[in-house]
Amino acid sequence: MKRLMGFLWLAGLMLGVGSSGALAATECNGPLSGTIVGGVVVNNGDFCVLDEANVSGGVQVNPGGILIVCGSTINGGLDANGAGNIIVGAEEIDCAGSVINGGVHIANTGPGALDGAPSIALERSVIHGSVHLTGNQGPMAVASNVIAGGLFCKGNALNVEDEGSPSAVTGKVTCKFAD
User: Fold this and answer.
1) Which of 48, 101, 112, 144 has its CA 20 to 30 A from that of 71?
2) Residues 43-56 pLDDT 10s
3) DSSP reduced 3-state for 76
4) Quick one: how far is CA 118 from the chain centroid?
């Protein structure tokens, strides 16, 4: 056992010396495109537009942040709690659909900071993971997506809209859709 612990300690030390440590997330307040390594964070008061970006490390939207994603790939999922707005692939603003490799978790968003826009719009995108919408206060649109996981809703103020174009969902769906 002592020999194993000594080996693990030495291996950890060598990894620590040989690596540069974890990459810090890029704070987004404006447009971002191209390759972004280490993830993206959108903070309170930030208005982030990912346009033809390739993000490695996921996207985190903190309370008060606004995120628009057009024609981008996010590797590592999308997590938002208390955001002003989350818009992915909205046709109404000529925003191309995106690919999200990982889950989408959006909680406590809304009622929406952008005039005329839903507080959450997930449209025309491919999501390789489940989508969880929890405790959101504004209008939500989930339309024309391919979601390779479930679509789960809990405690939202309003039902989800599919804008007449339902998403193809692999897995369980617990959301109620507006008439």
Assistant:
1) 112
2) 999 999 999 999 99
3) coil
4) 16
Identify whether the C-beta of residue 34 lies closer than 8 Å to the C-beta of residue 50.
no
What CA–CA distance (Å, rounded) separates 15 from 21?
Answer: 9
Q: Which residues pair with 55 in a beta bridge?
A: 36, 74
3-state helix, strand, coil in the chain (%, to 5): 10, 45, 45
Rounded Cα gap, residues 134 and 65, in angstroms: 17
Which residues make beta-bridge pairs with 74?
Answer: 55, 100
pTM attached to this predicted model: 0.87
Give the model confidence (pLDDT) of 75-117 as tens digits: 999 999 999 999 999 989 999 999 999 999 999 998 988 988 8
| Structure token digits, residue 152 | 């789960």
